[in-house]
Amino acid sequence: MAPTQDIRKKFGRFRILVVGRANAGKTTLLQRICNTTEKPEIFDRKGNKVDLAFHATSRGYHNIEDELVFGSNLDFVFHDSCGFESGGENEFTKMKKFVMDRASTTKLKE
Prior knowledge:
Blueprint: H1 3-11, E1 14-18, H2 26-33, E2 41-43, H3 52-56, E3 67-70, E4 73-80, H4 89-103
Parallel strand pairs: 1-4
Antiparallel strand pairs: 2-3, 3-4
């Protein structure tokens, strides 16, 4: 079996955190990577679908804990940072906690 197939068989899905400035096009980049123009489905950490109407009124708002999944590529679960602005210590602290919490997990569900 090819190395990429071995990895996909062992892990199934992958979690990816996207970090960048607010409104810099992070979601657009993910759409390109997943070869789609569709908006991602958004789920909270418990697996409940997040109301997109709330997100539509809050451009640039992203909860780093929410999972973004594109129907065209279910093997990847994306997380979008809130966006980093100059001196944005609060956003950096949230991102660091997210990474540290996930670094010790072995299952995507965690």
